[in-house]
Amino acid sequence: MKIGKLSALSGVPKDTIRYYIKIGLLLPKLQGSLLDFTQRDIDDLEIIKKLKTMGFSLKEIQHVFSLRFFSNWVEPEIINEYIYLLQKKQSQLTLEIKSKQKSHQIISEEINKLTDINQGKRNKLGVPLMALQYLACPNCGTTLDIEQAKMNYKYINSGELSCICGYKARIENGIVLTQNLYIGEYDKPDLKRELYRNLNEEFSIHFRTCSDLLINKLRNLSIQPKVALEANINGCFYLYNHLKELKTDCLYIFIDKFPETLFMYKELIELLGLELNILFIADASTSYPIKHHCVDLLISFFGENEHMLYHENTFLRDTQKYYTPDFYILGAFMAYTQHARSKRLIQKKYPECSSQTHSFEYLHGIYSSIPNKTFEFKYIGDVLKSSDNYAFSCHVPGETLKIYYFSLC
Description:
The chain is of the alpha/beta class. Among the domains are: 3-70, Multidrug-efflux Transporter Regulator, Chain: A, Domain 2, CATH 1.10.1660.10; 188-271 and 286-408, 3-Layer(aba) Sandwich (Rossmann fold). The chain is built from 11 helices and 14 strands. Strands 3, 4, 5, 6, 7, 8, 9, 10, 11, 12, 13 and 14 form a 12-stranded mixed sheet that branches. A two-stranded antiparallel sheet has the order 1-2. A hairpin with a 2-residue loop joins strand 1 and strand 2. The radius of gyration is 33 Å and the shape is elongated.
């Protein structure tokens, strides 16, 4: 019979049959240049299938076939050797079964643990009462009035914010919503947190290196901040991954131009059950409803890169009025060379972006010019390929994307 008929009768693909012939498990007859398969080949395929079902490898099956070929399958020593092989395989399978059972148990425990997290009671967050002292009109600096407030524990969940000069904002689901929300067409909320997924190993290592340097510096600050700020969190939200390490007596202000991003993170943070004072503000401008000179610490983990996609100046220059004289900045920055094609592609994809986007020389000039501050930076490494998400899609493979960690103290 031809190979097609053998394949149909045995249920074994033709390519697999050819491979069995190549390694000597099947020895069909030759009629001229054509292979002629017989009942013996059908029987041999059934034995191979049976041995594979019992967990034998092809190399082990070759050994069994050798035993069969050189015997009548009745010799005691041959039968005993085959029994030994079966017992050995049975012992291996017993160990594998125990291992799989343990894996199954651990997986079940992990599923139950994560299910409990998903179904757990949320620690509902809102505008902390202690944050009210920091809310102020961005136009005239007057403390904002709040009306129709609905409160829960130590948080305000909803209400209307206003100033005598006419400025208005509102609190909705525990988040301050200003009237300055992003209406452009060049960005969207990253609700699946896709931006930093699928990064290559090189970028991931540099990313983690910057993260470790920042958290170590944060732990060892000489002055503990009363108010910390992180903005542009739709791009990268650094403190989100370190919330359990944060001081509970500090106010943390998280700002983004997309309310959807803030609502998403707020719900995720609520699952952690942490007693943190967090003020969420949705605002696409840099005229925030917070008092001047109140922020002690700015976290800018690639935040400047995100900000300069939509603004000409650095975030530091645009928001300098909010910092205390003793403020700190801790962050990381991505940069291309001056004439990199990747920069031109970014400017094409994001027409609102700064002419100095992804320029470390420009950032260095701004940060170094701040009086009575020391700008320190550390070159972490190069990335030659990042990912296809958001601004990373503009990275021309092979062009150098430099990663820096920096601090301003």
